[in-house]
Please model this.
Amino acid sequence: MEAQTLDLLLRWLHFFAGIVWIGHNYSTLIQRPNYTPLAASDLTGQGSPRFMSLLAREHGIFRWASVVTWGSGILMLWQRGWLADSLTLTGYQAVIGLGTWIGTLMMLNVWFVLWPHQKKVLGFVPAPVEERLRCSRVTFVSARVNTMLSVPLLFLMASAQHGGFLYG
Amino acid sequence: MRTLLDTARGTILAGLALTLVVWMIARWLVRMGVGG
Model:
């Protein structure tokens, strides 16, 4: 496959998976804009509506979309020969490089902060109710941190390609 | 403890403020040639 075609396919995949991932995140922001703490009864009551709704929303799509987004971004940089300069923030590649690091943090946040805590909240991993309530706060803040980080990340993605005048 | 991230508006405002900071860092890195 020609490098140009591969680049286009990776870019398409990067956009698509990124929208699936961050789309889930933005959807939560719009539907539940303000933090409302869970109560112990939400987690212990039989068929509590809030717990059932949390459970119904749980699936792996956005977590795996984060891996596809990150992987396609890294492959795109690699096949252009830009990966090392990006990661070391060298020259103009510092712009997309900062984006790469922010995106990496976001993916690690999903897998190593949000998901382990979410497993306790949902009871996939046994934990006392106080611990599950504490974890529910962590999952909220973790998700919101990714929402916040997506704003500068999108700016870096756009300006690395179309905003050279901003960095001259 | 309540934080700016507890509301959607606060989250987006924090993201915009961070964008300004990140842009300034990127501009500094490109101009100074750090890492190059």
User: Anything to note?
Assistant: Residues 1-36 of chain B form one domain. Helices of chain B lie at 8-32. Chain B touches chain A through 27 residues (CB under 8 Å). Chain B has one domain: 1-36.
